Amino acid sequence: MKIFEYSHLKDEEIVALIHLNRESELFRILYDRYYLKVLDKCYSILKNRIVAEEMAEDIFSKVFEKISISDNISNFSSWLFSVTYNHCIDYLRQKKKLHYPEWNRDNEIPEIPDESEEYFSDVDYDLLMKVLEMIHPEEKALIMMKYQDNLSLRDIGKSLRISEDAAKMRLKRARTRVIYIYKNVTRS
After folding, report:
1. Residue 20 burial by CB count (10 A; 0-12/13-18/19+): exposed, middle or buried?
2. Could you report the per-residue pLDDT of 112-160, keeping only the tens digit for each?
3. How many structural domains are present in the chain?
4. For residues 92 and 97, what is the distance between their CA atoms, to the nearest angstrom?
5. How far, CA to CA in Å, does 142 sit from each of 20, 96, 152?
6. Which CATH number goes with the domain that contains 160?
7. How many Cβ atoms are within 10 Å of 23's Cβ, its own excluded?
8. N or C: which end of the chain has fewer CB within 10 A?
9. Interacting residues of 153 by C-beta distance below 8 A, sequence separation 6+
10. Who's near 7: CB < 8 A, 6+ residues apart?
């Protein structure tokens, strides 16, 4: 099989070929398309290049195993990014004992109105990136899933193995925390 003949196909068409015909060589196209994006997402959460590279390889191994048996992958990139975030967050929970509910209790912020759409119309991008490094990795992942990868709350919930309502609540809390920190940093 000449893989380059299939490189023009959409992700979902390649997934269908892999699933139906067991054409595992086609997975290389998806790997080449997404490896650097997955690596960047891993690094943005883990902040360690070597661990991020290991995680990216683990993620692609896991995706490769699941892709031929899963017949309900409607959007490959969304599914891949969900697997990526979930894998990295599981790693942090296990390795660093970063359990979000406990962390959130220990890092209470005053309740402020959720004005994220209004407040962030004129934002300093570099400062926002610094603020995202100051929040819990799970909150950062939530924000990235929603605003960078455009995942639905249902997909975010599935990715983090929480309910859609819990994802909505945690996302609201994460936005509130970002606004709170951003306002305090800009006042300083």
Report:
1. exposed
2. 555 555 555 677 888 888 988 888 888 888 899 898 888 889 888 888 8
3. 2
4. 7
5. 33, 19, 11
6. 1.10.10.10
7. 16
8. C
9. 146, 164, 167, 168, 171
10. 29
* pTM of the entire predicted model: 0.77
User: What secondary structure letter does DSSP report for 46?
Assistant: H
Tell me, what CATH number does 70's domain have?
1.10.1740.10
Could you give the angle at which helices 164-187 and 125-132 cross, rounded to 10 degrees? 120
Domain span at residue 127 reads: 100-188
DSSP-assigned states of every residue in 83-147: HHHHHHHHHHHHHH---HHHHHHHT--------HHHHTTS--HHHHHHHHTTS-HHHHHHHIIII
With a CB cutoff of 8 Å and minimum separation 6, the contacts of 184 are none
Mean pLDDT over 14-19 rounds to 86
